[in-house]
Amino acid sequence: MLSSSSSSSSAPNIMPPLPDDETLTLLLDVAIHASKLAGEIILGNAGGADVLKSKANSRDLLTLIDPLCEKTIRETVLATFPSHDFLGEEDVPPGKEASAAAIDAKLANNPSHYLWIVDPIDGTSNFVHGMPLCMPSVAVAYKGEVVVGVIHDPHRGETFTAVRGRGAYMMNDEQKEQRIQVGGQSTIGDAIVAMGSPPAEESMKMSLAALPVLMPRVRTIRMLGSAALMLAWVANGRLTAYWEYDLSSWDVAAGSILIEEAGGSMTDLKNERWNLRTRKICGSNGGKVHEEILDALGEAGVV
Fold first, then answer.
1. pLDDT tens for residues 213-253?
2. What is the pLDDT of residues 5-29, one digit of tens each?
3. DSSP assignments along the chain, one per residue
4. Is the pTM of this model over 0.70?
């Protein structure tokens, strides 16, 4: 049995001091505003969009709307924080090597200490086909630690937010805000587990290997096609867990803080706490369920 995430590392995680409360609030406000502007663009094209090109392969798509949403978010952020650094998915060539190199470069050289990490449309394949399962994901890291996360679902009018140390919340279009928390499932048999249908061949093989081991043990498995949505839904208890063999920082950063601030666990597949360089991920309500999912993945050879 894997140990719990709180004791899995040989050394404790030491977080940098947080920015002051006023700065954190301003970061959150700008992230929400930028996310909603991008959401308006997504809704304006909700019937679907033409594919501009494929990236890593024919399952990894880019539309004309993705860079427009990223440009909107970037300009909104830099209007308030001109010295902050910015990493968007559309800035980076396809492939996990380029993605890993991009986050390494940003973390190694960032005089402002602030890095905005953005997926302008998470769930592009859903967006192309007019499925309302796509949304912007916006996170802010300070000295390498995510301190603000916003996932705005324009289709359902739900905005998921978290600030480090303040908890996680969901706000609807009527501006009604409620604190959210992960689900209360205590065993894997009661868990609704989400996973991806990844475009890369290695990740696809690992996902297929996991299914015959994991599926009989859980209540059900869901593939929704948007990491941001699945992470947000773990945070508010609609899903129990979400795992993926290989994701980039912009796919996970905002959702990671949502899950942790909602009381869950966000780790790699070895149960080490997630960080911006982590690519193999599992976010869940924590505790025994988290361990049982990782154990099942290990039995399936997903390492």
1. 999 999 999 999 999 999 999 999 999 999 999 999 999 99
2. 333 443 446 778 899 999 999 999 9
3. -PPPGGG-SSS---PPPPPPHHHHHHHHHHHHHHHHHHHHHHHHTTT---EEEESSSTTSEEESHHHHHHHHHHHHHHHH-TT-EEEEGGGS-SSHHHHHHHHHHHHHS-TT-EEEEEEEEE-HHHHHTT-S--EEEEEEEETTEEEEEEEEETTTTEEEEEETTTEEEEEETT--EEE-------SGGG-EEE----SSHHHHHHHHHHHHHHGGGSSEEE--S-HHHHHHHHHTTSSSEEEES---HHHHHHHHHHHHHTT-EEE-TTSPBP-TT--SEEEES-HHHHHHHHHHHHHTT--
4. yes
